[in-house]
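If it is no trouble, can you show me the amino acids of a protein and the tokens describing how it folds?
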Amino acid sequence: MAFRFLLPILVASSGVTGGSAIAADLVIAMPNWPSGQATANILKLGIAKEFGLDAEVKELGTLIAFNGLEAGTVDIHPEVWQPNLNDVIKKYVTDKGVVTLTKHSVEAWQGICATPAAAEKGLKTIEDLGDPAKTAILDTDGDGKGEMWIGAPTWSSTGIERVRANTYGYAKTLNLVEAEEEVAMVALDAAIATNQPMVFACYAPHFIFDLHKIVRISEPPHDATKWQLASGADPLWISKSTASTAWDAAHFGIAYATGFAKKHADVAAFLEKVDLTPEEATAMSYAVEVEHQSAADYAKAWVEKNAARIDGWAKP
């Protein structure tokens, strides 16, 4: 009922308008998830309001964006997740010093979730996913193996979810599906509406926990000694890595080019004061994915409503 009908829809328009043909004063990378899209546009409008600078919002994968932050072709990334990007952060922030992370970050969580129907039929723990007798209920295409969405193709977390599936062993019992988040959320809505079992990679803050009764799959608490991730620069990094416990506590924040901060210290100081909350990130994802607002339209209304707060971010 779910993935076999939805997988062809791998790319959907976000409704976001980028920059104009005229060269902008700065470039903000925009990721392909809703809170990152909304935040990119909020920063664009906030910077224009406070500093009179025109920013181009440009859809870019995170790794390409970090290359741009070093090269000077990108100035800001609105939502950098840790520990997902620890390898990238070490390279560009710690070792090279060409990217700076803001001190404020938003607390987050990552893991595996199940619909109530899946939990009721015995899929409650990470060990359950390795039992083919239990995961057979997730089979939607009749090939004898269940399906599990593990993230969008360009997400750093998606590769790590493959590592986790390999290490835990459920890569042998499940077909691991990569697709854009919008496709997965349509599949989730359909599964919930028809009381069908579904298991999928999930994260918070996210609207799904408010919209549906989602069950988090339990797994052993994070143990750093059991997470051995090879460098993402190695094309075989997934097969060389292991991760056999839950994700470490996650958080995300804004990154900006260190060189950009030298030219626009006032804007860098502004970015350091941006204090978005988990609840606001949830509201962004709900507006973009459930209400189908464009990220640009949502940001415009948000900036108008929070004008005084944005003014505060710009104060020395």
